[in-house]
Amino acid sequence: MAVCPITTSTAAPLSELECLMRNVFSIIIPFAGLAAFVVLIVGGFSYLTSAGDPKKVQQAQGTITGAIIGIIVTLAIWFIFQLIKVITGIDVLQFAIPT
User: Measuring CA to CA, how many Å separate 94 from each of 11, 16, 58, 69, 90?
Assistant: First the structure.
């Protein structure tokens, strides 16, 4: 990953927008996967502590289902981005402003 230059001017150049978007893209997908994994752990803990109460069990199962769907969606998005990169040669996660 390239290092973003630090400028001292009052007006931010477009290259700083590229750096910002590069950082956002490199953080957002792993963060979404981590968040879904944490929700999965919380749902599992809720399921274990439900003590057989049908309402709590159903709520915990819904949480676990949502977390699994979140993990699958996150992995699918990452896979689609990689597939686009392999097929077209264009890295869609590489944000660049044409000059």
Answer: 23, 14, 42, 26, 8
